[in-house]
Amino acid sequence: MTPARKAPRTGTRTFATTWWGQAWVDALEASTLDAGRLSRGRTYARKGMVGPVTATPGTLRAAVEGSTPWPYDATVHLRVLNHAQWDTLLTAIAAQASRTAALLDGEMPADLIDDARAAGIPLLPEPTELDPECSCPDWGYPCKHAAALCYATAAHLDDDPFWLFTLRGRTKDTVLTALRTRRQAHTSAAPKTNGAPHGQGLPARDAFASWNGSFTPPALETAASAPGEPDTAPSPLTTTPPPGAPFTLDDLEALTRDTAQRARSLVAGNTASLTCTPLEDAVRLAATGIGEDWFHQLVRATGLPPLDFAFLVRALRHGGPAGVAVARAPIVPDPATMAAARTALTAPDNTDDTGSTVRLRAWRNRLTAADEGVQIRLGPDNRWHPYTREGHDAAWWPCAPATADPISALVAARTAAATSTHNTREPPTTVPQQRGSAASRC
Fold first, then answer.
1. Do residue 260 and residue 394 come from a single domain?
2. DSSP letter for each residue of 331-374
3. Does the N-terminal or the C-terminal CB of the chain have fewer CB atoms within 10 Å?
């Protein structure tokens, strides 16, 4: 597997921590775009004025704050690869199993970029390829808003190198499906050796990527537990760890049960856990109801303040992965969906406890009834996630399961607010109180 080469950092002037993220920035600054406008865009990006960035084939898009009360819609276009180029690129990736494994681990193999360039396939933008546009009145090429979007993209490339493939025309799922097909053909053509070549094993992700889908797994002796519930299968572990080991037999058994449950999920076709980040996996483990000791070990491992971590755990419990996305950052929603929800919530027959019409403040994907201390947030799953103000600092916390109906979500938030004492319910008692958490900023 090709290791992730970290890009050099110089104070706060860089926007990427991986070599491929920095390569994006280098390609941007070596392009024919106006250097002066790029400089202003860097300033905007450093100030956090770029909203959530979305990547679709050939297009980057985000709302970018400017001098007006409303953000501008910035877009950057990039040429997509043709079918022949994709065929060459996918064949090059599938030829080495380590390349697929590296991509699934969130790394971009450096030799893949070099080989693709040698074959005339540009993954990184060429000097004249980036085509910016924006709803602002600035006629610069690019304007500072589109330039800021280009710089903010580097951080997303750090987190997921598949963004490069998406921008070149094919989504992550499409690429993985094509790679799996090529690996199947390669595996079928290779001599059978009762497993991996020379009796050696394969990385789990690579083995799963090469699975041809024709295998029918045998019936499990015990039924899979429901998500979030302990697995009742007997433990296969009988050997106690040696004295002084940083883990106990109970720890190993808990991890084995978690591994078995995830394996069953993979057999059922749920592959999301293959690509989750270490932070996402830590939050997932904490949301299963592990003990307090494990909770604090996961907090220390992630490096997050305890309240920030507890905030994400509760968001996952109430809303799943979409709940975490809603909790971490505001998103730019569909205006028609927001307008329809606001109309329904402010209708005469939807009043608060005093009989008054609901007074809502809208911002991005959030509808807030500030005088009631409740809020609902529209998620990328098109469900509404209820929030209430909690704690001494009256921060917003997820409070109830997400629902597709905004009225039901508002009722759930009101019910949660009503059951707390003076709207100051404390976060989980296992988490020490700290100021300045992500919850208070959201």
1. no
2. ----HHHHHHHHHHHTSTT-B-TTSPBP--EEETTEEEEGGGTE
3. N
Q: Which domain holds residue 428?
A: 321-441
Contacts of 191 (CB under 8 A, 6+ apart): none
Mean pLDDT over 311-338 rounds to 90
CA distances to 102, 337, 394, 416, 422 from 410, in Å: 43, 16, 18, 10, 18
Check residue 99 and give its pLDDT: 82
Q: Are residues 263 and 336 in the same domain?
A: no
Are 401 and 373 in contact, with CB atoms under 8 Å apart? no
Residue 273 DSSP label: G
| Amino acid at the residue 384 | W
Place of tokens 């996918």: 90
Report the domain count for the chain: 3
Per-residue pLDDT reduced to its tens digit, 365-421: 999 998 889 999 999 989 999 999 988 778 999 999 999 999 999 999 999 888 864
Q: Please tell me the pTM assigned to this model.
A: 0.45
- Domain annotation covers residue 427: yes
User: Best-predicted range by mean pLDDT among 53-57, 180-184, 236-240?
Assistant: 53-57
> CA 302 to CA 153: how far, in whole Å?
23
